Amino acid sequence: METKKVTKKSKSQSKNKSVRLSMSTYESANRWVEFANEKKAGSKIKLDQVLNLAVSLLTPEHIKKLQSDSLKGSDLQEIMRQKYIKQFGHISKEDYIAFTTTSAYVEFLIAQNDLVNLEVAV
């Protein structure tokens, strides 16, 4: 009996990928494409070109803003608890939540705000 060697045909890698966008983002980007194509000469400008330009204009400050905007209340509370631990030593989550109801917590927050302002000024 002869055995046939089966070889898989390798698919050529596509240079394009699908990306999910919210409908409002998609419509906004398409309005920019339409605006860019209001010209008398030249080839058609594609959505990919508009998005590529937009991404190239992003700065680290934009990314920091996105990261900051993604934080929830519980995330911010955990960040502050970690700052407390750094400054005063370990405290459980339950004890920290109880601590947030005291006047000492307000003083702690004010001190943290002063530290942030000092870091920005330096």
Give a short account of the largest sheet.
none
Counted beta strands: 0
Whole-number average pLDDT? 86
Number of helices, counting only DSSP H or I runs of 4 residues or more: 6
Tell me the helix content. 55-70%
Number of domains: 2
What fraction strand? Answer: under 5%
Global Rg: 27 Å
Query: End-to-end span in angstroms?
Result: 81 Å
Taken from the alpha-carbon principal axes, the silhouette is flat
* N-to-C SSE string, H for helix and E for strand: HHHHHH
Low-pLDDT segments: 118-122
The secondary structure category is: mainly alpha
Secondary structure blueprint with pairings:
Blueprint: H1 23-36, H2 47-56, H3 60-69, H4 73-88, H5 93-99, H6 103-121
Describe what this molecule looks like in 3D.
The protein has 122 residues and is mainly α. The chain has 2 domains: 23-57, no CATH class; 71-121, no CATH class. It is 62% helix and 0% strand. The protein is built from 6 helices and no strands.
Short key terms for the protein model shown above:
122 residues; mainly alpha; 62% helix; flat
At a glance:
The protein is mainly alpha-helical. Helix content is 62%, strand content 0%.
